[in-house]
Amino acid sequence: MKIAVLGAGSVGSYYGAVLKNKGFDVTLICRGDHYNQISSNGLSVKSHWGDYKIAINAKDNVEDLGFFDLIFYTPKLYSNKQTLPMLKKISNDNTLVITIQNGVNSHNEIQKFINKKNIIPAATFIEAEIESPGVILQQGSSALIEMGELDNVKSERLINIFEKFDSEFLSFKISKNILSTLWEKMIIVGAFGTIMTSFRMSFRELIDSYYGEDVLRGTMKEILTVGIAEGIELSSVSIDQIIIDLKKEADEMTSSMFNDLKNNKPLEIDSILGHVVSLSKKHNIALPYSSTLVSSLEKFKNG
Description:
Number of domains: 2
Number of helices: 12
Order of helices and strands: EHEHEEEEHEHEEHEHHHHHHH
Radius of gyration: 19 Å
CATH architecture of the largest domain: 3-Layer(aba) Sandwich
Strand content: 15-25%
């Protein structure tokens, strides 16, 4: 099986390393200093399960790569204008694309470029960052890809992917309702990631601050309200339990958006919490926490 990770930053590079270690033919498609280091010196991974260095194929363009059997699509949402045409060049009618981006709308954007039937929406639950070019730091005991079909069928292709790839170092799970899964992640990431970025605080600092947990809880409730208004099944969501779980790993929680802000990179705000705020307008739902947070990052979103 010929596998590509398109947009291999911290999360995508971690995926690629794990799959390469399992013996799969993996190509990382990345750019800049990260690409230069991987192609020259290999990829180093520091993880909850141990540290290692691996030689892995890396490319900074898609010319002459041909078609892949499976593509993990992992770029930042603000890079879609550049990466979606690249995705089209390396996929054909037999290529499966697992899209693992933040937000709840990635699969709809991708189907403008490739056939909807080839897309498998997924959410990932992992704490990872590029510690330095060519070095991935993964923290915490979770590295999970939860995937599903849009019609919620437990298809043969999902079963095959699970059986081939699931491991201690990267777990795969078949979602019973993938839109619910995406919104459940939005409730978490859309809240804490945006708040950390707006407040310029670590998650520990946020949760220990006087009003931090109140703002976190209020933002999560707003996202939940909009998801329900959109017709998403979210009856099993417990914000109290989510916060309890987040607190357990408070010292290891990171935010890619906060990292992007610190590195003067563009922010995914419009496609994450900003998307929720946009959806709220058609339902005439007031989102005081979310609207304030999105507005606070407006002038930083282009880097």
